[in-house]
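Input set for joint prediction.
Command: fold jointly, output C-alpha cells.
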Amino acid sequence: MNSLCFVCKEPQTLTSEHIIPQAISGRLKAKLYCKVCNDTFGHALDDEISKQFGRIGTRLNIKRERGEPQPYEVKELTSGIILVFDGKGLKRKEPIVKITSSDGKKLDSANITARSEKELKEICTSIQKRYEVSGGMETFKDVHPGPTDAEHEITIDNALLRRAVSKIAYGFLCIKLPKDVVLSSPFDAVREYIKTAKGSALACANFIHTQFMTDHIRPLHKIHIVLNRSEKIVVGYVSFFGIYRFTALLAENFESKFEWPGLDYTFDPVRLEQVVGNDNFRTPQLTKENILRPKQSKEFVLSELHKGHKVIENYVVNYKFLGGELC
Ligand SMILES: [Zn+2]
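C-alpha cells >
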C-alpha cells in the first residue's frame, strides 16, 4: 500500500528503516522513506555513520543485525606501526619482511614478522623459491595487547555526517508526532537539507550543550527532541555512544497547538536494550546560534572526546569482568 514518503512526500511503497543505523547497533525501525529516497541519499548517509562510528561498535563487539564488525586501522603510539583491529584482536596491517642478500641471488638473512603461522610459512616458502638459502631464518611472534595504546583518526564533523545526524533526528520525530504535523511546511527545510544538502548546514557537532546525553558509565545512543516555544524552533539532539554529540535544527517558525514533553530515546547498544530517560529532565533553551554555531574550543572538544573514550575502555573492562562477552 502506498503512503506519503516522509522526505519526498510522494505516494510510494515505504521501506523499513533503522532510525539509528544498524551498523552501530540501532534497533528502532519504522517505514519512513521510499526506495528512491533511500537509493539517492539514505544509504549514503547511513554509510557515513558506519564509516565514522562503526569502529566503536567493533571495539564494543556489538551485535549487528547484518554484516560483519567493521575492522579499523589504528597506529601504535610508540612504534608508529599501523595495526588493524577486527573486534577480536590487533594485527599488523602488513607482515614485515627484511631480507639481506649481498649478490641478489644468495640469501644472507631474512627477518620476518608475520601475523599468523600460516602467513609465516607462506612467506618462508616464497623466499626459499626465490633465493638460494644458506643462512637460517629467524622468526618471532608479534604481540599487541589492545587498542588502548593505539590511536586513530576520526572525523567528528563533516557535511555528510551533519546530514546523517539530521536524518536520524528527523526520523525519530516522524514516529513521534502526527504525520500531518511532520509533513507541514516548517519541516520542509530539514527535508530539503537531508535530501540534497541545499542551503546552510542544519546540524553541528556540539559538545557544549549536550552534557545530558552522557551518563559517564555507559556508551549510550540518544535522540532527544524538544520544542522551544519562545524561539519557535524544534531542536534535535543526537549522541552516538555517548561520545559524539550533535545538535540539529529541525524546524523554524513552528507553532504547536499542543504541549510536548521532551521526546526521548536512549539505547544501550551493547546490551541491546532501551534505557529509561529522565522524564523530569529539561534541556537548556537553545537559540539557533547555540545549535548551529556553538562556541566550543578545540581543547574543550578534545577533553570531552577523551572522557568519552575513557568510558568506552572502562565499560569494555568492567563488562568483561561481569561475565559479558566483550573482546
Ligand atoms: Zn521518498
